[in-house]
Request: fold
Amino acid sequence: MVEPRDGRPDPDALLHRLREEGDEARTRGRFKLFFGAAPGVGKTFTMLEAAAARRDEGVDVVIGIVETHGRRETQRLTEGLPILPRRTVEHRGIVLEEFDLDAAMARRPALLLLDELAHTNAPGSRHAKRWQDVDELLDAGIDVYSTLNVQHVESLNDVVAQVTGITVRETVPDSVIEHADEIELVDVSPEVLIERLRDGKVYVPEQAARALDRFFRRGNLLALRELALRRTASRVDADMRGWMQRSGIRDTWAATDRVLACVGRRPDDDRIVRRARRLAEALDAEWIALSVEPVMAGGFSDDDRATVAAHLQLAERLGARAVTLANDDVADAVAGFVGANNVTRLVLGQPRRRAWAPWRRSLLDAVAQRVTSVDVMVVAADAPRGDGSATAAQHAPAPRLSGYLQATVVVGIVTAIGLLLRARVSTTDVAMLYILGIAIIGSRTQYRPALFASVLAILAFDLCFVPPFYTLAVSDANYLLTFAMMLVVAVLVSRLTGTLRAQADAARAREARTAAAFSLSSDLSAARAPAEISAALERHSTSVVPGSSRVSLRRDDGALDSDDGVERWAFEHRQMAGMGTQTLPASPALYLPLVASDVAHGVLRMAPADPRDVSDPARRQLLESFATQAAIALERVRLAEGTELARVEVEAERLRTSLLSSLSHDLRTPLGAIEGAASSLADAGTTLGDETRRDLAQAIVEESRRMTRMVGNLLDMIRVETGALSVHQEWQPLEEVVSVALLRLDERLAGREVTVSLPVALPLVCIDAILVEQVLINLLENALKYSPAGSPIAIGATAARDTVTVSVSDRGIGIPPGQALAVFDKFHRIEHSTETPGVGLGLTICRGIVLAHGGRIWLEARDGGGTVVRFSLPAGEPPAHIVGMPHDGPDDDVTA
Reply:
């Protein structure tokens, strides 16, 4: 990561501070987490003690969920605290008790106790996890106390599984813990915890015996305790460093060790890296490898950049975090980084004095003067190599010959112009021309060519414009002061212009990297498929490192979709390989695994046109950032696919349950009636009268028809849902379809007043007559079911420019508020009609048929009571040979 350090405030630190101040200003509740190594250490007990103290202070404390596990001491602490009733959830025949989030939001206590943060809520809950409930409570301004064991931390899940041999399924993201306002570690020794188990204070005796044999072994408890202590210490260290930064404290507080290795362009600086690694291992501390690249002098040369990159790559392989800063003052950059990161141990290379400049301070002296609270270790060099320095940043790379050539040309041009104008301009004006030329050189080349131009300009000025001409002698001593001022002004101007140019170049480079990262992020956020993510990554990676790129993705079976051995190695080991690494470095490409949440989703193969590009730390780290972003996007897509599959499975399960429930009720009734009528006919034989036999036979026929309609609706629903519904459209008069539908329901409509109102000039419609007839039959049957016997039913139609709208109206029970759309869902029954026969598929089938015709269907409340169901059908221009065909239609108002 390249971080400019030019004296300005760190933008990341400013953003962090603004975010924290914003958190304090808003009304979000405070979250305190009681953290422990294992069950039984006393987290819930400590939480209840803290809650009781808050209650005594007058705070409104309420228990949302507290699991006492039968522990009497813990149970006693809950006395006197109000407890929210739990809500009950039935899942697969089992009644579960869960935290009632809605009740908590309505009660709105000042402090809510919510035990076992990693708990998974029962299906059907608003949130899948309890920590998501906590997040909603905090957003509502409610303070929350909760508990968590270290084995439930997401990033430590694999470590816990390795130690204990048990994979914990319920985990909490690390971000939840990091955003907690306060963490309190609840800790006891393994001996005390084991004793508690034996005394039955953690589990019942049978469970305690099994726990002692498996999870609660002393070695496991020691490892879990260390993990909990380290996780808490890491959080405390982050809080301390944040407080130091906000308070402007630049000294180091050695609360925890952190090692910094300063490396540069010297080939033997790898000794610094290895020595820092051994020191960090001995201290069990975090360590960082730092390189400072000069800005004004144009940065490292290509060879020096490759050397520095090799040192940083070695440090990363050994477990360090590699950082590159851009600053001309190396000591200031190192001191600033030490203060910002609370470094306690600094490792530097041995300084090498210059014989020609013994007065010049080394990096060691400069850093030691600025940082007085850090232990400094000096690593001896292999052997002197010229007049090297402690880091590459102390020496600018040798400027190219073209810079000196440009300086010579510019000074020559200024001298020629001055000679042409010597008789007309003053010596002072000529001096200004030379300063202008030096400023031009300073803005176009490095510092040394500008200094060379300054000296050359003074010599030319003395030779050509100071009497006696064409000699270095000076007749007037005042010109000596002019020479000195020219040199000082020229040096200052060249240094300033060079700094501005270098800063502009660095800003352009940062802007280009930021734009590339933003562009990739935008493309990845819009991608909805792995292929789109791969294409975006390939396109943007070649914009950073010119060459060819290829992304290989993980297949459904978990293997990589590639036959390249290097790609497979990078995928399986989740490590970089190929060019510039220690694994198959002779490979013509760099292989970066796409890893997110410790899962490899694929590999990016980057074959650069220039191998030096992948050795550039900035470009390489940008590629790694691209790979990480792409991996997160792939994980998001796969999680979305898994969520959709889960949603489909849940929906299928719901449909199966609804279907079985409906069939068990609605098929049982006609089957029972058929069985009863048939058994009566069989048992009574000829003793029944003719009229009774006819009635029983008629009952069998009607119930059979009812079952046929029900099964037909199920089959129609399946055709609609699977897209197997085929529509054979022909130009038809709507009046005939209405007449056929009424004829088929003639017996069931007996005793009803049915009013049909169809305009005489109703146009033809291009429909599947059989399907539209089914729509009308379903709507009429619904009207019969949901309206009182003998009440009227009305059928109407209106024609607009491009649609024909048909309506079926009744004077029934109407549609409850908010269910006008839900009634079209499968198996939906309005609340006060559950006793009405049917499975709730009629309107679903109607909607499918109407949509297949390109129309729409909706419900309206009827004036005076009842319901109006309307559906529209597209109306177009029929062919000429059909327009002229006569068709009989009913009058405007017909009563059946």
Remarks:
- Confidence is low (pLDDT under 50) at residues 1-9, 383-399, 885-896.
- The two ends are 84 Å apart (CA to CA).
- The chain has 27 helices and 25 strands.
- Residues 240 and 255 are 9 Å apart (CA to CA).
